[in-house]
Amino acid sequence: MSDIDLVPLVDEGLGNSAYLVDLGDGRALVVDVSRDLRAVHAAAAQRGLTVAFAADTHLHADFLSGAHQLGAMNGATVLASAAGKREFVHQGLHDGDEVDLGGLRLRALLTPGHTHEHLAFLLLDGDREVGVFTGGSLIVGSAARTDLISDDRTDELTRAQYASLRRLAALPGDVQVWPTHGAGSFCAAPLGAERTSTIAHELDTNPLLCAPDENAFVTQLLGSLGSHPPYFRRLGEINRLGPALLDGEPTMQQLSVDAVRTLLADGAVLVDVRPVDHFATAHIAGAISIPLRPVFASWLGWLVSADLPVVILRDNNQDPVEIVWQAVKIGDDNIVGELDGGMDAWTSAGYGTAQIRLTRPTNLDGHRVLDIRQRSEYAAGHVPGAVHLELGDVSARAADLPDEPTVVMCGHGERAIGAASLLERAGHHDLFVLDGGPQDWIQATGGKLETGI
């Protein structure tokens, strides 16, 4: 077999890539697939393939792996690091172990750093080294973060990451680099939009491979890391134990207005997934706004405790299946149902609504401006005088903020409406959300952004 039929399966919301490899005999290998296996099944069915092998490069922190599901329900052989001590049926691999895929071979390369048990998988066609599934070690233009296991192991793992990248960089220059983490992933250090590369290209362009020594590498990598969702610290252990197996497609129960009111009174959280303008115009007081879009899962896991039951409020044209799958892939199995009939049912029952007004970039004067983007985004350019507080910190810091007329802003409005809903939930008044972001402010006012923190 001289040509490798490899299909990247990109999850834009998580910023991750899984891969399907046609083994040429009706079987397939998949690498780093999530619990949401819809894309895997579709790609395999389109090619008439059966998934025979499911490899995981590491104990993922940003999503629940689908390898356990494929092994238990589809008979696939799960390939993973023996050092991960997974508690479900799998073939534990050590450094240098090889797996015969029926013509192609997969060689395990111990590459700790992102996690302590991380493996890269080198794909060989005969003696030719074709490509390497680098998972969370070498990624395009960078390396995956090393601070997810524990604070006291971060320095150790960062130094291990240095050695792992040097090991991978010693592969032939034409070897393809197929990472899991990419642009948009909170597991990754800042990087560009490309998702695959080659060893030669990374040697030429990756700043971390140009670090003069280990200490410089450590300083450079750790200095580039931003915040991450709190659920990143718990999913690795769930993946080690084996995520609960799913019996069919997850669904949402239909709940009456009275049932929803009872659940909310008992401590459930109402998550409103409607677009920004719909939530702003009218919403149920106390609801948390997380507009449904590709990054919905990350913000659901960041803003809502996994210990609390969740009720969903959506528009009729929003796909309930997509909502549940996004939650399921990050281990949020606590959606108890959705409000049957949505906002129309709520208002028809005679219950009131709340409002958060949208405002234009020309209307910021006289208002406190709260920029809730990530620290790196704020530092790169923000409206002069804007106060910074990341969205993920709003709930914990809401009591520290003055209750005064405030315009909340982000890049476009989706995160800002979420922050405003959290502030409203905490008792703040006179809240506005900027309809747009910094670039809209520049165009409307001709102003110049400030940089730095």
Helix content: 25-40%
Distance between termini?
54 Å
Main beta-sheet strand count, sense and barrel state: 6 strands, mixed
Query: What's the number of helices?
Result: 15
Query: What is the fold-level CATH name, i.e. the topology of the largest domain?
Result: Metallo-beta-lactamase, Chain A
Strand content: 15-25%
CATH architecture assignment of the largest domain: 4-Layer Sandwich
Strand tally: 24
Unreliable runs, pLDDT <50, ≥5 residues?
none
Structural class: alpha/beta
Sequence of strands across the biggest β-sheet: 1-2-3-4-5-6
**CA-atom Rg in angstroms:** 23 Å
CATH class of the largest domain: Alpha Beta
Structure explained in plain terms:
With 453 residues, the chain is α/β, with parallel strands linked by helices. It has 3 domains: 5-241, Metallo-beta-lactamase, Chain A, CATH 3.60.15.10; 254-348, 3-Layer(aba) Sandwich (Oxidized Rhodanese, domain 1), CATH 3.40.250; 357-445, 3-Layer(aba) Sandwich (Oxidized Rhodanese, domain 1), CATH 3.40.250. Helix content is 29%, strand content 23%. It has 15 helices and 24 strands. Strand 21, helix 12 and strand 22 form a beta-alpha-beta unit. It is globular and about 70 Å long. The model has no long low-confidence stretch (mean pLDDT 94).
